């Protein structure tokens, strides 16, 4: 049986009808809210997708520029520049921190890059790297790689938000479809069933009342007829006693007199 033809098993009463109507109102409101949430998440999803495409397009140029700047630094300062840089660096200057951003009830992880103040204070030791030769190329290489790190952090944040939003949109759409195609049709069919049963009960009660009224009317007519017959019998008995005739003769005399007491001669 399809979802359109299914209904909940309930007792068809007025109280249950009110409960099912309240459930239908709640399901309708929930469907509207989830639909708005799905639309908001979809809009945010598309914006993030555009940013990802833009970041990936720029990442190729930035990574190529950083790799070429490293080659230039090695050419200008020599191959020993790697050991000099490793010896001069004590801690990372650029760091990454995470936070959460709430979008329509969905918490999206966000990664941000920042410069460590403690590491920035020791930057003076790295400024002297390549002072003998190639210092300008070393600083250019450092700036290019910092820019590449910033793009990678931004892309990682966008990719993580993209995957989180994708799962949230799928879950929300499943709930919307369940409410629209399963829950609401079942409640509506149940309400229709309860209304039909209540109408049938009302018709049965009306028919029962009509039958009871008919029985009461027949009983009243019978009582009236019995009372009339009893009064007639009493009258016949009185006539028969007064005239000294039988009840049948008194009945014939009463019928011959047209049912009027004035026509009877005592």
TrEMBL record:
One annotated GO molecular function: proton-transporting ATPase activity, rotational mechanism
Superkingdom in the source lineage: Eukaryota
One Pfam family recorded for the sequence: ATP-synt_D
Gene3D superfamilies documented for this protein: 1.10.287.3240
Coiled-coil residue spans: 184-237
Keywords: Coiled coil, Ion transport, Transport
Keyword Signal (UniProt): no
Family membership noted in the UniProt record: Belongs to the V-ATPase D subunit family.
Protein name per Swiss-Prot or TrEMBL: V-type proton ATPase subunit D
């Amino acid at each position: 049986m399809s979802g359109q033809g299914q209904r909940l098993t309930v007792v068809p009463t007025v109280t249950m009808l009110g409960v099912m109507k309240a459930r239908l109102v709640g399901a309708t409101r929930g469907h509207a809210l989830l639909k708005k949430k799905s639309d908001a998440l979809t809009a945010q999803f598309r914006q993030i997708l555009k940013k990802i495409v833009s970041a990936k397009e720029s990442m190729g140029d930035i990574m190529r520029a950083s790799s070429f700047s490293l080659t230039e630094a090695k050419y200008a300062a020599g191959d020993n520049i790697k050991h000099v840089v490793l010896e001069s660096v004590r801690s990372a200057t650029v760091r990454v921190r995470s936070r959460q951003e709430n979008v329509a009830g969905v918490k999206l992880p966000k990664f941000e890059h920042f410069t460590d103040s403690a590491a920035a204070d020791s930057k003076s030791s790295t400024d002297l790297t390549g002072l003998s030769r190639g210092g300008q190329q070393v600083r250019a290489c450092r700036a290019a790689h910092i820019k590449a790190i910033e793009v990678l952090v931004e892309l990682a944040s966008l990719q993580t938000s993209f995957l989180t939003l994708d799962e949230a949109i799928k879950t929300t759409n499943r709930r919307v479809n369940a409410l629209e195609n399963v829950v609401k049709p079942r409640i509506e069919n149940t309400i229709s069933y309860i209304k039909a049963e209540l109408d049938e009960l009302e018709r049965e009660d009306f028919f029962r009342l009509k039958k009871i009224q008919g029985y009461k009317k027949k009983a009243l007519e019978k009582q009236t007829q019995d009372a009339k017959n009893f009064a007639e019998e009493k009258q016949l008995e009185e006539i028969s006693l007064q005239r000294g005739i039988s009840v049948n003769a008194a009945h014939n005399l009463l019928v011959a007199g047209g049912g009027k007491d004035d026509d009877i001669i005592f």
